[in-house]
Amino acid sequence: MSVLNFLFGSLPSGIHVGRSNVKVVAERRLPEIRQFLISLFNSADEIAHSDLVYTFFHPLLRDQQEADIHAAKVKGNPAAIEDSQPPQLGGKIKISLQYHRDTLIVMIHHALSLPTTPNGQPPNTYVKVYLKPDGSKTTKRKTKVVRKNCNPSFMETLEYRLPIEFIQKKVLHVTIWSHDSLQENAFLGGFELPLAEIDLRQETLQWHQLGYLTRS
């Protein structure tokens, strides 16, 4: 527990909750909780984006989305039902590939015409890459987040120092996501590319259309 407190901090203690003063205590604690959440999401990426934080908050989002959809159905409000759906997929992404000095180099250049979020805002985008099949997800690589942009430029290199014979048996699995600190990251689309079909000794630079894929 001391390690968790060191990483995430803790809320002030000393207030005892009883049956008669639950509301008073809750109102008193609300500013402290808000400050704790602000501090948490302003922490370093390894803390703010940790599996523990995501595991805690993601079920809350799913519960809220389901409740919103159910309420909209009960009220017969089609617009509210539509607004609760995830963003439509679309756009394209430009990447380059080359095998050089015993390393597969995947350069993520730009994306174009990405959809907005359900509330109409530009997405906070990042790209995630795997070499599939990969049950243990050891080949997972991802870019930094480019904030509030439907046409983001990443210009980031992801590398795999692996034998070319191994790489040629893999499928490059590329997905693009919109990051949200308080909600589940939104899937914006992706594509797959069998690496056996490409001459990796030569650099290839190409736009790829984003579509539906198995989420990873």
UniProtKB/TrEMBL annotation:
<protein>
    <submittedName>
        <fullName>Phopsphatidylinositol 3-kinase</fullName>
    </submittedName>
</protein>
<dbReference type="InterPro" id="IPR035892">
    <property type="entry name" value="C2_domain_sf"/>
</dbReference>
<feature type="domain" description="C2">
    <location>
        <begin position="89"/>
        <end position="208"/>
    </location>
</feature>
<keyword id="KW-0418">Kinase</keyword>
<dbReference type="Pfam" id="PF00168">
    <property type="entry name" value="C2"/>
</dbReference>
<dbReference type="GO" id="GO:0016301">
    <property type="term" value="F:kinase activity"/>
</dbReference>
<dbReference type="GO" id="GO:0035091">
    <property type="term" value="F:phosphatidylinositol binding"/>
</dbReference>
<keyword id="KW-0808">Transferase</keyword>
<dbReference type="InterPro" id="IPR000008">
    <property type="entry name" value="C2_dom"/>
</dbReference>
<dbReference type="GO" id="GO:0042043">
    <property type="term" value="F:neurexin family protein binding"/>
</dbReference>
<dbReference type="GO" id="GO:0006887">
    <property type="term" value="P:exocytosis"/>
</dbReference>
<dbReference type="InterPro" id="IPR036871">
    <property type="entry name" value="PX_dom_sf"/>
</dbReference>
